[in-house]
Structure formats: structure tokens, C-alpha cells
């Protein structure tokens, strides 16, 4: 299961009542390409001087009787004044997981597996639409991620389009599907097989095709892991109109589940691999070995260059578990090593190592800012900001809360 289990989230909320804002300082990267601990005099549109709004999910420390403690909402981060503000706080029926920022400043949020709801919020975080899929046929459950087609359904880097895609599971067979949904009504209009079990996050490629992270884990109807020996993770490429299989890639170790993915960025913000010029996809891995030492020493980052899928580094400092991944400086990636309490940076010019950039309690959700030069890290006690050219910064949450796996910067923020 990704992120915090219910027991771990409850324990974190209990500890927050007595804890100081931070367990340890955020560390600037040292000895890594492009790293700097010196603050920049000027900040860009996503820089530290401008308040930012992010859509995210969390579990509240307390909730009125009959109201779910699971929330979706909007946080405003004002680095200049040193405050985080809860702009919107919406109770939802169970854990939220993936979020998608929309061009109008709003966002979509979808339930964690085995999820049954999808909602759309406006730029203020107010709910505009709620969809329950309990009555849809054939029956499916959400796997926790949603993506939008490109303009006119052709894919690309834009986030406006006619269709939504959601990864889903058939509870009767365990097979994964991609549903195609009307972006206006959220209603399913088509569907196709995702190419394996436990399909999770997916992204569009430049040509509009869909790249799907197949976790490969066999699960029961409640989403619990079973029959680990049958794991078959892979990266799948599908045609967005028909679901036709365009390619499939696997790692040598079938116990490395592929969960979350991100495109690398150049300093200009374009999708690219700084070394080869070809698009580079980063894949966050979660080890599922029975032996604790094998899990702890397993790699946690793979890359795909359009032709081959390979382990990016054997560095085991993430402890075998990457909760999230985001584009980082210099065409690299930052991963959240949630169990190792670290944020780690991989750079293609130094591929053999992961450079620690943060030491935090329960770091997980990541968001790329400033065209890939910086990353926001949501952690157990607050938000941290690491930047390759500016001083690191951190702020505590305004109330006790246990953040979930993902967040996204909203348009206009």
C-alpha cells in the first residue's frame, strides 16, 4: 500500500500534538552538480516570494461525529510571511490519492484503491461535481490516478481536452483497465485493458500515447496484497484512442513494483533528458521482497528513454521504498524515501548515486516548481522547499494533519 497506512497516520497525528514543528533541518545538497545553499536575490513566478496554492489530501486530527476525517482541499503556502493556510477542507468518503490540476485553476481528485469516487473542485476548492462509480457497469474500482487527454484528444503536454482517463480494477478478476470518461460529466464512455494487474499512475507522452505504471501486485477485492510470487510489474505504452499495446518493458527483478512516474525537465522546463536529448521517464520503485534485507537494499529508481527500461542506480539509501517522484534540477529526479525519512536527488551526470537533499518526518508528496529547479516536499510536520540555486526553506502545518501521497500546484498560484 502506498504512503501512510491508517495505523501509521493515526500514530503520526498523535505525535503531532506534542511535537515541535520539525524533527530535523532540511539539508541543502552538497557535492552534487548544480547544488547551492545560497539564496537567490530574485524568484521566478513559482519562486519563494510568491504565495502558492496546492491541491492535496490529508487525514484530519479530529472531525465532527459522522464526518469523515479524510479530506481533500487546498493549501496556500506563503513563504514570504512564513505561513501555511488551509483554503479549502472537503470531507471525502475514504482516502484520496492522485490529483490533477486543471487549466481553470481547479483540480480533480480520485479515491485510493479500491476507490469508488471521483470529484472536481474549482479554483477555490469548492466541489463542483462528485461521481460515485458504484452503479457503473461493468463494475470497476479506481486505482488512485487520473489524467486528461490533450486538446482534441491528441495528447501532448497541455492539460485541456475532451476526455479523462482513470486507472481501474475489475474486482472479480483483478485485471486492470483504463476507463475513458467525458471530461464534462465524468461519465465513462469507453474502456480498454491496461496490460496487467495493479495499474497505477500513468502519463501522456509527446505523441499522445499513454505510459502506464503496472504495479504488478496481485490484490484481493479490498486492495490487500496476496500471492507475491505472481507479481509481474511493467511499463506499458498504449494508444490513447483504442488501448492498442504499443510496447511493454520489464525489469529483471519482478519484486520491484512500479508505482509512480514523472518526466524529466530541462532548465527551460521542457520535457527532455539533458544528456541525450531524448525524453526521459523516471519510475519510482517499491520493493516487495519477503526478506527485510533485500527490501531495504533494493533500488528505488528506474529510467526509460523510449527504448529501454533500466535501473538508474543501485544506491540503496532510500531503503527500498520511493513514495513519490518529481522532476528535479538538471534533467534529474527527486524521490521521497518515506521510510528512510529522506528526499533524494538523482542527476544523470552522476547516475551512480542518490544525493540527500532533505531529512524529514514521513516525506512523501512532491511537486516540481520553478521549471524543475526546485521541489516542494509534503511531510509529516509541514512543507519543505529545496532548490538547486536558492536557500532551503520549511514551514509547519497550521493544524495537526497527516498528509497523503500526492499534491499538485494549481494554475494561477
Topology of this structure?
Layout lengths: L5 H11 L35 E9 L9 E9 L4 E9 L4 E6 L5 E5 L5 E5 L5 E6 L8 E8 L14 E7 L5 E8 L5 E10 L1 E6 L5 E5 L19 E5 L6 E5 L6 E8 L17 E7 L4 H5 L4 E4 L4 E3 L13 E3 L5 E5 L4 E6 L2 E10 L6 E4 L4 E5 L3 E6 L5 E4 L4 E9 L4
Antiparallel strand pairs: 1-2, 1-28, 2-3, 4-5, 5-6, 6-7, 8-9, 9-10, 10-11, 12-13, 13-14, 14-15, 16-17, 17-18, 18-19, 20-21, 21-22, 22-23, 24-25, 25-26, 26-27
Describe the protein.
This protein has 413 residues and is mainly beta. The chain contains two helices and 28 strands. The strands form seven sheets. A four-stranded antiparallel β-sheet has the order 3-2-1-28. The protein has a four-stranded antiparallel β-sheet with strand order 4-5-6-7, with no helix packed on it. It has one domain (6-409): YVTN repeat-like/Quinoprotein amine dehydrogenase (Methylamine Dehydrogenase, Chain H). The two termini are 31 Å apart.
Amino acid at each position: 500500500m502506498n504512503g501512510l497506512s491508517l495505523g501509521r497516520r493515526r500514530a503520526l497525528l498523535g505525535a503531532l500534538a506534542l511535537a515541535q514543528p520539525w524533527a530535523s533541518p532540511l539539508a541543502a545538497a552538497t557535492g552534487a552538480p548544480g547544488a547551492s545553499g545560497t539564496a537567490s536575490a530574485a524568484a521566478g513566478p513559482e519562486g519563494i516570494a510568491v504565495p502558492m496554492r496546492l491541491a492535496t489530501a490529508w487525514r484530519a486530527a479530529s472531525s465532527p461525529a459522522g464526518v469523515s476525517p479524510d479530506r481533500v482541499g487546498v493549501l496556500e503556502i506563503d513563504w514570504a510571511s512564513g505561513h501555511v493556510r488551509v483554503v479549502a477542507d472537503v470531507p471525502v468518503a475514504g482516502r484520496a490519492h492522485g490529483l490533477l490540476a486543471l487549466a481553470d485553476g481547479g483540480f480533480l481528485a480520485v479515491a485510493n484503491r479500491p476507490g469508488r469516487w471521483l470529484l472536481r473542485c474549482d479554483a477555490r476548492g469548492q466541489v463542483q461535481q462528485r461521481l460515485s462509480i458504484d452503479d457503473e457497469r461493468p463494475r470497476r474500482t479506481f486505482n488512485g490516478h487520473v489524467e486528461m487527454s490533450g486538446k482534441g484528444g491528441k495528447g501532448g503536454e497541455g492539460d485541456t481536452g475532451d476526455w479523462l482517463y482513470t486507472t481501474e480494477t475489475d474486482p472479480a478478476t483483478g485485471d486492470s483497465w483504463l476507463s475513458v470518461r467525458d471530461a464534462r460529466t465524468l461519465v465513462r464512455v469507453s474502456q480498454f485493458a491496461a496490460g496487467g494487474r495493479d495499474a497505477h499512475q500513468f502519463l501522456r507522452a509527446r505523441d499522445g500515447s499513454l505510459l502506464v505504471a503496472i504495479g504488478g501486485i496481485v490484490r484481493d477485492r479490498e486492495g490487500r496484497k496476496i500471492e507475491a510470487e505472481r507479481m509481474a510489474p511493467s511499463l506499458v505504452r498504449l494508444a490513447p484512442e483504442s488501448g492498442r499495446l504499443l510496447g511493454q518493458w520489464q525489469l529483471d527483478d519482478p519484486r520491484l513494483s512500479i508505482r509512480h512516474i514523472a518526466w524529466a525537465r530541462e532548465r527551460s522546463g521542457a520535457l527532455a533528458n539533458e544528456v541525450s536529448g531524448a525524453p526521459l521517464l523516471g519510475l519510482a520503485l517499491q520493493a516487495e521482497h519477503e526478506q527485510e534485507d533485500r527490501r531495504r537494499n533494493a533500488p528505488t529508481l528506474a529510467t526509460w528513454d523510449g527504448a529501454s527500461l533500466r535501473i538508474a542506480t543501485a544506491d540503496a539509501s532510500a531503503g527500498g521504498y520511493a513514495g513519490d517522484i518529481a522532476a528535479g534540477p538538471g534533467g534529474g529526479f527527486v524521490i521521497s524515501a518515506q521510510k528512510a525519512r529522506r528526499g533524494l536527488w538523482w542527476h544523470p551526470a552522476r547516475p551512480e548515486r542518490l544525493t540527500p537533499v532533505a531529512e524529514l518526518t514521513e516525506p512523501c508528496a512532491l511537486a516540481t516548481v520553478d521549471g524543475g529547479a526546485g521541489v516542494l516536499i509534503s511531510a509529516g510536520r509541514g512543507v519543505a522547499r529545496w532548490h538547486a540555486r536558492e536557500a532551503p526553506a520549511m514551514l509547519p502545518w497550521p493544524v495537526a494533519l497527516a498528509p497523503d501521497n500526492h499534491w499538485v500546484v494549481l494554475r494561477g498560484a
